[in-house]
Design goal:
Largest sheet: none
Helix content: over 70%
Strand content: under 5%
Order of helices and strands: HHHHHHHHHHHHHHHHHHHHH
Distance between the termini: 122 Å
Number of helices: 21
Radius of gyration: 32 Å
Number of domains: 4
Shape: globular
């Protein structure tokens, strides 16, 4: 049997998958897409993205089309429910369903658009934070390169290849390419670069340089004065960030002492006086256990956007998610063994179910927080804590150079001294690389790989860059040391202001727990002590619903304490990893307090009438 083979077109070229155009690429020819692309071009450059503006606009337009189709379907379904069901049966549930569909249909397209724009804005903000953090050291290196006699064109070539900077390198590379490929002057290229800079401080720095060159002012003196002004601006921003964090911490306490407690007060009143004869406890319980603890994420995001941040090495949180899954599995297994799983999933338990449920939840959340806290804290300690010693090291290098000693000899003499403290480990590692035959500049870069502290890491890499261009002199090293010392001082003052704020989440969690549980217990004791009062009327079900409300309060408080610990870590050090140990502490405190408060009983007595 003959098999007929299909003839292949020899001219057809199949591109690899990564080079094929996306499905929305055909939309770039539309006029609306072209007009949208003009407004996105500047933002994409500020975000450091290499994505084509027209493709980016086509992608957003494509998503808007899909969301609009879904919106029309939902609105049509909502109108169908109104016409076919509500107008016929006049039941409120059909009207509620139709309104929900229409509202979702109306908000989906704008939410889709804002989600895409928010991603781009977040990239711009992250880049701005990185540029601002690197700017202080960049101004010192920039001045050093000017003093070394490099031409501005060569200076930007060297700066764009410097490994000391991650975020500013993209902008200096943009300047270098405009000079090389477009034939622009250094000043014109810097003016164009200032327009795509997400940082106002860097823009002002470039404009100060261009103005000094074109007006004939002393360039080095102008740059040094601008560098001091940038340090003052960073100090002001750190102070403002600390004040705003204080406001967030106060808002969190207000939320716990008003909104959080008021929600449970509403649940207690709902248990006593059901609306319309139907209890809303199940719905309120789901909100209390899921939504209320997640409110902490809003505060964590607020802290993330407000705090003083540096572009430091990110921790890997995969370990935390693994232990979180293990902890949840252990919690559910314990609930099954204690025969509490039904009450937990349906939120139908009473005061008798609180103790076994709380114990199972505490064990599960401790497994989720303590092991990763220990491992991540150890990783943090190994990579941080070098800032107090790096300035002393830089000044030791400067003094040694003045005395005519080579840097290798200086490192050999000070690597084991007590003054170097923890930084001595890095110096020993650098010296080991030197003995193995590595060039000193490469040894500096190898030593910097272990460091997570931004200022310490950039100090070593800056030394390597100075050696590479031959400008490592006592004056240049001392200049870098002064800038690093000023930046460390700003960071230290900021941290001292923030540390006092760590107490506020603890106080808020404890006070809200005591108030909500004691309130429910007091009302329950009152009802149980006055049997005649609730024997008739709507209060007859309160003795059953109120213990359920207290049970829900206990579960929500445990989850809220765990999330509040993450907020404490983010507030104190800017890292969620340090909050894991606070989560374990708060969960333990909450569990102990719940078990103790269960044994607190209130006695209410009728006033006795005096007898004659």
């Amino acid at each position: 049997m003959a098999v007929k083979l299909k003839k292949k077109n020899k001219d057809a070229i199949t591109l690899p998958k990564q080079y094929q155009l996306p499905i929305y690429a055909s939309l770039v020819k539309l006029g609306i897409v072209k007009s949208m692309a003009k407004s996105y071009e500047q933002k994409l450059l500020m975000a450091g993205s290499s994505e084509d503006p027209q493709l980016f606009a086509a992608k957003i337009f494509f998503y808007l089309l899909l969301s609009s189709v879904l919106s029309v379907v939902l609105i049509g379904f909502g109108l169908f429910v109104i016409i076919k069901f509500y107008l016929v049966f006049r039941l409120a549930k059909y009207l509620a369903l139709s309104f929900m569909m229409i509202i979702f249909g109306l908000i989906i397209p704008p939410v889709t658009y804002l989600a895409n724009i928010a991603t781009l804005s977040q990239k711009i903000e992250s880049r701005r934070i990185g540029v601002d953090a690197e700017l202080s050291a960049f101004t010192s290196v920039f001045t050093i390169f000017l003093r070394s006699g490099l031409t501005p064109r060569l200076m930007f070539d060297r700066l764009s290849s410097s490994s000391a900077f991650h975020y500013i390198n993209g902008i200096t590379l943009y300047v270098s390419k405009r000079i090389r490929y477009l034939g622009e002057s250094v000043e014109d290229a810097m003016l164009h670069a200032s327009q795509i800079s997400p940082s106002k401080l860097l823009k002002d720095f470039f404009l100060a340089y261009v103005t000094a060159v074109r007006t004939g002012a002393p360039v080095i003196n102008t740059i040094e004065a601008k560098a001091k002004d940038i340090l003052d601006q960073l100090q002001l921003r750190a102070s403002l960030a600390a004040d705003r964090l204080s406001g967030i911490a106060e808002s969190y306490v207000i939320w716990l002492s008003s909104g959080y407690i008021m929600f449970f007060l509403m649940m207690v009143l709902e248990a006593i006086f059901p609306v319309g004869g139907t209890s809303m406890i199940p719905i309120l319980g789901v909100l209390a256990v899921t939504v209320l603890p997640l409110v902490n994420i809003i505060f964590i995001y607020g802290v993330e956007q407000t705090q003083l941040r540096f572009p430091e090495k990110k921790l890997n949180y995969n370990l935390f998610f693994i232990f979180l899954a293990i902890g949840m599995i252990v919690m559910f297994v314990l609930l099954v063994l204690e025969k509490q799983i039904f009450y937990f999933l349906t939120l139908s338990g009473g005061t008798d179910n609180i103790a076994p449920t709380v114990i199972a939840m505490t064990i599960g959340l401790l497994i989720a927080s303590v092991p990763p806290a220990i491992i991540l804290t150890k990783e943090l300690k190994e990579g941080t804590g070098y800032d107090p010693y790096v300035v002393g090291f830089m000044r030791a290098i400067a003094e040694g150079l003045r005395a005519g000693l080579p840097p290798e000899t200086i490192i050999k003499n000070i690597k084991d001294s007590k003054e170097m403290g923890k930084f001595g480990k890095i110096l020993n590692e650098i010296y080991a690389y030197i003995t193995l035959g590595y060039p000193l500049k490469d040894a500096f870069r190898k030593g910097a790989e272990r460091i997570m502290d931004f200022t310490s890491k950039i100090s070593l890499v800056s030394l390597a860059d100075m050696m590479e261009i031959g400008s490592m002199t006592p004056e240049t090293v001392e200049s870098i040391a002064r800038q690093i010392e000023s930046q460390i001082k700003i960071k230290r003052d900021y941290e001292s202001k923030v540390k006092i704020l760590l107490v506020t989440p603890y106080m808020g969690v404890i006070l809200s727990l005591i108030a909500s549980v004691l309130l429910g217990s007091a009302i329950l004791s009152l009802l149980l002590g006055q049997k005649i009062s609730y024997a008739v009327g709507p209060l007859i079900e309160a003795s059953v619903l109120l213990p359920r409300a207290i049970y829900i309060t206990a579960i929500s408080s445990i989850f809220n304490s765990f999330m509040a610990g993450l907020l404490v870590g983010k507030l104190g050090s800017g890292k969620i990893a340090t909050g894991l140990i606070h989560s374990a502490i708060l969960v333990m405190i909450t569990a102990v307090m719940l078990l103790v408060l269960l044994h607190v009983h209130f006695a209410f007595y009728k006033p006795s009438t005096p007898t004659i």
